[in-house]
Fold this sequence. Notes:
By secondary structure, this protein is mostly helical.
Amino acid sequence: MFLLLAWGLSQEVDPREEAKRQKELLLQTAGVLPSELIVEQGKELFYAKRGPKNASLEGCDFGLGPGVLKGASVRLPRYFMDTNKVEDLDSRIRTCMIQLQGFKPEEIKRSEVVAIAFYVAAQSDGMPVQVRLLYPSEKAFYELGERLFYARSGARDIGCATCHVTYLGKRAGVLPYADVINVAGKGAAMTHWPAYRYSNDQAWTMEDRIRACYGNLGHPAPEFYSPAVIALQLFMAYHANGAKAELPGFLR
């Protein structure tokens, strides 16, 4: 019996298949996925007139023109002339809440940014990632993201590449499938965020995922909307170009 148990525990569980199983179980029991509810919550927030300016986010420009959502999230991060900054989906939502609705930065709730990100990203479901390096600031962020990705730091002296490159395909669990620069050159991780994580019943964007990874490294997590978080996303997204987005994701 012990040998059978040990053999069973040693077998790898394909996280993609397990995610499909968990999704089916939720649909059978609840009839709806949590990610779908979060998208609806984000939609309500997007179109609601809120803030000191009593305005919606319909005029927000995610890079393809005010109010154009289809295909926008798969082109992020990118440079925006109105802020003279490279922004990802989260920071761009925050920018629009400040500029269009009049919120002060400290008034913006993280949970609302996440919900809106789910809605905006859902409009690009099934589309290929298309991130370009056209502006000097985008190229600079890419280079910063590359350095951060391969840097070893923290109490454990490891980095992103330790798991997602060095041990790719050599360890059990999610690593072979959550890699950001895989053998085919397509970044699987970037095509599934924002995502609902069934393992902890939480809605995360890629910013949350990166911050959690820093915690795993034993390293202080960078601030939300910070250049380090955005630079890492730009580096990974560029290597995900051409990969089909599945948004919002449903992951472990």
